[in-house]
Amino acid sequence: MMKTSDAIVVEHLRVVRGERVVLPDLSVRVPAGEVVGLLGPSGGGKSTLMRAIVGVQQVESGKVTVLGKPAGSAGLRRRVGYVTQAPSVYADLTVRHNLRYFATVLGASGDAVDRAVDAVDLTSHADTPVGRLSGGQKSRVSLAAALVGDPEVLVLDEPTVGLDPVLRRDLWDLFRRLAHEQGRTLLVSSHVMDEATRCDRLLLLREGTILSDSTLPELLARTGAVDAEHAFLGLVDDAARTGERS
Predict the structure, then answer these.
(1) Which ranges of 107-202 would DSSP assign to H, the alpha helix?
(2) What number of other Cβ atoms are within 10 A of residue 104's Cβ?
(3) What are the pLDDT digits (tens) for 1-55?
(4) Is 152:1 a contact under the CB 8 Å cutoff?
(5) Which H or E run contains 66?
(6) What pTM was estimated for this model as a whole?
(7) C-alpha to C-alpha distance for 226 and 216, rounded to whole angstroms
(8) Cα(119)–Cα(115) distance, integer angstroms
(9) DSSP 8-state code for residue 158
(10) What is the rounded distance in angstroms from the CA atom of residue 1 to the CA atom of residue 4?
(11) Which of 84, 170, 172, 185 could form a disulfide with 7 if both were Cys (CB 3.0 to 4.6 A apart)?
(12) Where are any strands of DSSP class E within the chain?
């Protein structure tokens, strides 16, 4: 597993969709081997940034580097896993058949499917068609599909949305094991501020701008807030006041 100081480097990224500037000039670094939370309200640019990192977003200018290579490079196909908000698997295939398909596409090893099924705790449902699974189980199948290629970087777009508290807890425990025991880098987006406590580092994004890039203790110390939500609201108010004065 590759270890560098930064797994993802974004420099002066500008993305325009239609007439809307989604990301005006965004620069950020994601340390290797950590769970980094990308937090902020819906519509703030989280999904656009993640799409740019995996190389599927058209950008106007700027540079995105992942594991030392330009985002979207052919050499990153197995090294970067991407889980979208909507389950990206085939409903008419079983869990195992889905993962076998993705393993074949990625040229993964023969035991990769079993490892991925076990990692997301779906062994008892491995031969069940995905269409018969619950929403939370489908999300875990999508995560397993991303794990089949044994990626060094995982980009997860709101993977816990709509899940019950137990499933959310279990998934975050899995994310931390992947980072802290296996050395993988995870960038996980969420609009649920209480998930900040589960991250090694936090990126607070609003209207395409990074308001904070720090650990949770650093964020709370800087703002004097009692939790991430109040800290975020304080930063939003500060940004608004600064904008009014400029």
Answers:
(1) 112-119, 135-147, 165-180
(2) 11
(3) 444 589 999 999 999 999 999 999 999 999 999 999 999 888 899 999 999 999 9
(4) yes
(5) strand 61-66
(6) 0.90
(7) 11
(8) 6
(9) S
(10) 10
(11) 185
(12) 6-17, 20-31, 35-39, 61-66, 69-70, 80-83, 153-156, 185-190, 201-206, 209-214
